Amino acid sequence: MPSESAVTSKAVPAQEVTATTAADKPPNRFRQALPQYAAVSPFFILFAIFGAFPVLFSIWISFHSWDGIGNMTWVGLEQYNYLLSDATFWKTIGNTLIIWVLSTVPMLLLALVIANALHNATRFRTFYRIAYFIPNVTSVVAITLVFGSIFSNNFGLLNAFLQSIGLGQVEWLTQPWGIKIAIATIITWRWVGYNAIIYLAGLQAISADVYEAAKVDGASSRQTFWRITVPMMRPVILFTAVTSTIGGLQIFTESRVLFGDTNNIGGPGDAGLTIVSYLYQSAFINNQFGYGAAIGWALFVLIVLFSIINWRLIGGNDDERLTRRAARRVERRIAAQNAKRAAAQSAAAKETADVR
Amino acid sequence: MSVERIRTVVGHVVLMLGVLVSLFPFYWMVVMASNTTPDIFSYPPKLWIGSHLFENMGKVLDNIDFFGSMLITLIASLGVTVLALFFDSLAAFAFAKYEFPGRNLLFGLLLATFMIPTQLSLVPQFVTLAEFGWIGSLKALIIPGAANAFGIFWMRQYAKGAIPDELISAAKVDGAGFFRQYLTVGLPVLRPGLAFLGIFTFINVWNDYLWPLIVMTDPNRLTLQVALDQLNGIYGTDYSMVMAGALMSVVPLIGVFLIGARSFIADLAAGAMKF
């Protein structure tokens, strides 16, 4: 520590002296920044070892046939060729996307409803927020076990309830759709509160003046919602859409724990086998490391693809411009309203003056 | 006025229903953990808390090394949290408050790492750690997560607003070097931000399932989540016991969350708004 402070105290006058000779300046700037480089280096060193290198290495592995212990055999693009014709792989993509839609759509809609209600509520706010957030911080394994029992085919709570109101039983954990609904329910339950809190923050960031102006304008609550709330919330909605897409494509724990069977981690007929489950199964159960790496790259391509689609769909590229435009539109309207009112007033004043 | 009132009441009813749905699985966990398995599987099912909780918890302790797993999970969670708080805040302090050549490039690089899904490097990470001889050891759980891009990004946003430049200038005038400035100016101001990041990191590591499943290969040294899953896999027929285990694994976590819940939630929301 003392040697370090000595460097800076020396460096400060040194800079003043050499300010006239430009040639000495560049090396000094780097030397002066040494402590800063030291401060940011742990991340980059760890990332190089556990992030960047593995990513590059995984390309190499995916070009080989390898069981993780023996020799690596170069097979070129064969893993990828096989991947494209592998019915199970396509099935896992289908499963993942179905579960993703089944969970994300209700999750974000419900979150918006809850956020709105929270925004309007003046009492018990902290209690609500904590109660809605608790599912998100809970152990996924534990909660999946609970939902597993609720969805259980013969004695599950849900079936007991359905039976008691005369609807009969559904074989949730053996039917392809039942499995997906069960997994999607767990995900929705865990993430609704999280997204609602994010939306609430977005709602609170919208200035009250804007709503006041809309009210003066005589806007209905539906108009206010679609013309002001939604456009102003665009960046926040984009954030939740992108994060839940990335999260949704990486579903693993729920389906793995729900069936609790190491040999058949996707449940009956692989109906709950997700992309990551398949990656795990290929690499760490069947010891096909090369194939597991190839699946990892396919997942990466999908994530990038879907992030771009989201971006385009919700207009993330120009979201700032859009929000600003929405704000300007409101401002213009306020100005017009004021002008109209002023005109009406002056006209009224004139009229009364004329009458007199 | 009365229309307004009806609207408020309806709003609270909706919110309360939501709260019930949010909390019901926890209640159900307690119901199952405190009854016997035959009771749960009877029709109609028992809906109230029973008297077999301690008996079921005892069975959990008999069947898996619960406290051993908890200790491993605790050491891993605390280890990652302490290291990440230090490395993340140090890097964030430098990124937020100092000009240095290549700063923007390095920060851009850091943000770019967000794009890489962790699953992509699962296989080669495992191979690398096996090469190091770390498989099955706590190092495999702690070191790879010791500094992370999210933490640095989040702390930097926080530090930018929280630390006044005047304080740093004053410390400089006093002859403090960069690390002294970090300790005397940065750390005290960043404390609330560190609290959030600490809870966030702790909960994430505690809950992680996939990574420990892969690297903790010794069946006698499993993390809590993996041990719980094993309990379910082997003794899945004894639902009450499995639920008692689940309950025991969840309670400490909720405790940690509740300690800082209020500001934790506010900070998380604020962090998301900055993206």
TrEMBL record, chain A:
Domain of life: Bacteria
Membrane topology: Multi-pass membrane protein
Localization annotation: Cell membrane
Annotated Gene Ontology cellular component terms: plasma membrane
Listed InterPro entries: ABC_transporter_permease, MetI-like, MetI-like_sf
Keywords: Cell membrane, Membrane, Transmembrane, Transmembrane helix, Transport
Domain annotation ABC transmembrane type-1: ranges: 93-310
Residues annotated as transmembrane: 37-63, 97-118, 130-151, 235-253, 289-314
The UniProt record lists the keyword Membrane: yes
GO biological process: one example: transmembrane transport
Family affiliation: Belongs to the binding-protein-dependent transport system permease family.
Protein name per its UniProtKB record: Sugar ABC transporter permease
Naturally occurring in which organism (per UniProt): Kribbella sp. HUAS MG21
From TrEMBL, chain B:
Keywords attached to this entry: Cell membrane, Membrane, Transmembrane, Transmembrane helix, Transport
Subcellular location: Cell membrane
Domain ABC transmembrane type-1: 70-260
Keyword RNA-binding: no
GO cellular component, one term: plasma membrane
PROSITE patterns per record: ABC_TM1
One Pfam short name: BPD_transp_1
Subcellular location, principal: membrane
GO BP of this protein: transmembrane transport
InterPro entries reported for this sequence: MetI-like, MetI-like_sf
SUPFAM superfamilies: MetI-like
Transmembrane segments: 9-28, 66-93, 105-126, 132-154, 189-206, 241-265
Membrane topology note: Multi-pass membrane protein
The family this protein is said to belong to: Belongs to the binding-protein-dependent transport system permease family.
Protein's UniProt name: Carbohydrate ABC transporter permease
